[in-house]
Amino acid sequence: MAYEYDLVILGGGTGGYVAAIRSAQLGLKTAIVENEKIGGTCLHKGCIPSKALLRSAEVFSLTKKSEEFGVFTTGIELNFKKVQERKTGIIEQLYKGVQYLMKQGKIDIYHGFGRILGPSIFSPMPGTISVEMANGSENEMLIPKNIIIATGSRPSSLPGIEIDGNYVMTSDDAIEMEKLPQSITIIGGGVIGIEWASMLADFGVNVTVIEYADQIIPNEDEDIIKELTRLLRKKGINIVTNAKVLSESIEIKEKQVQINAEIKGQIQTFLAEKILVSVGRKPNSDNIGLQNTEIEMNTNGAIKVNSTFQTKESHIYAIGDVIGGLQLAHVASHEGIKAVEHIAGFNPVSMVYENVPKCIYSSPEVASVGFTEKEAMEKGFKVKIGKFPFKAVGKALVVGDAEGFVKIVADEKTNDILGIQMIGPHVTDLISEAGLARVLDATPWEVGNTIHPHPTLSEAIGEAALAVDGLSIHI
């Protein structure tokens, strides 16, 4: 039997289920096809579980220096089983919430693997979806007027490195570890690799990060990366850059795994209990029936879309990690909303990716929006800079975390804020003010004259804005 829908969404991750909720709000008959659990990677394998683990690592690290706050403790012990139980509890609570939202929106869920078929007796256009049901029952046939592909991405590896889930892992495997290793080699110094490095170091693991480029987090502001590198090394993380991993050298020896890397023409050997491969993610665009359509893809497997997220098949849209670009949950959500509104006949404002806040939940945290100083100069802007350190902010000293700073890049000609970068305590929460400033084309004067309550960490933003024109008060 075939079922008709206004919209069928392939993938129930953050982008997919948010798109489904917006679709239901607009009165469209909606279904999601999801092979695993609603919530996708973000809820079950990525954003939420990793941040739960990071929080436990932060508490453990803070407890070890509690005497600085006049709190004396004895017998500090890490129970990693309890850490994992807390993580699982958070996931389950949020999962129930998403399931409730699906029920509330009367959104049909098909638990299985969906594939797009070509023209058939059901439809003269490609787009009928065959769902291979997870429970083994007969395939379901869905006939949608429109489709959104929101199938997300999965961890990449390097040629020659076999992921066994034990000695050699991806982040999907690491999130389920039952026991912490004593040592780990992380291949890749991008966002995911650095978050894991920070977390594991705070848990007491001996961590080495091997990065091919000349710095970790290559796309962030240079001043931010210098500070991040310094602070990560300060907590004992060995960061090795300009290193080409020799995949063929990987070898398991006496319950440890060894790999070599070429660094400035010299071969260096790294030995640890585990290797975490963190070299990016690749789109889940294979085996979903794209060959039955006119949809085009990039060389990396990302689906090509226009500004309204339509593929070459105008009734088939794609959002999130599967289209490449910024692989962030909040980006996928907003792309999904805009795609649905376009389907519903609205004219949504196009995404401005330069206004998307980007966060790294390491310790210290990093957050940014807009252009870095280097990017702005490469685009031809004549820039002026304001910086303000957290060590001059009373609340940062009260919190006991005064490392880092806020940096604002402004256009000397128009005075518009081009970018804001932060490193330090709770900057992943503070960045939303910077995001609003970008959306409103705010100037440093406007941000600097916004009253920031005292004592708060947000004062660093106001002071950095004043510093752009040499007007900072507290430094």
From TrEMBL:
- Looking at the record's lineage, which domain of life comes first? Bacteria
Q: Reply yes or no: does the keyword NAD apply.
A: yes
Q: Which UniProt keywords apply?
A: Cytoplasm, Disulfide bond, FAD, Flavoprotein, NAD, Oxidoreductase, Redox-active center
Q: Where is the FAD/NAD(P)-binding domain?
A: 5-336
EC?
Answer: 1.8.1.4
Cofactor detail note? Binds 1 FAD per subunit.
Q: Which cofactor does it need?
A: FAD
Annotated catalysed reactions = N(6)-[(R)-dihydrolipoyl]-L-lysyl-[protein] + NAD(+) = N(6)-[(R)-lipoyl]-L-lysyl-[protein] + NADH + H(+)
Q: What EC class does the entry list?
A: oxidoreductase
Give me the segments passing through the membrane.
Answer: none
The segment(s) forming the Pyridine nucleotide-disulphide oxidoreductase dimerisation domain are: 356-465
- Family that this chain belongs to: Belongs to the class-I pyridine nucleotide-disulfide oxidoreductase family.
Q: Please state what the protein is called.
A: Dihydrolipoyl dehydrogenase
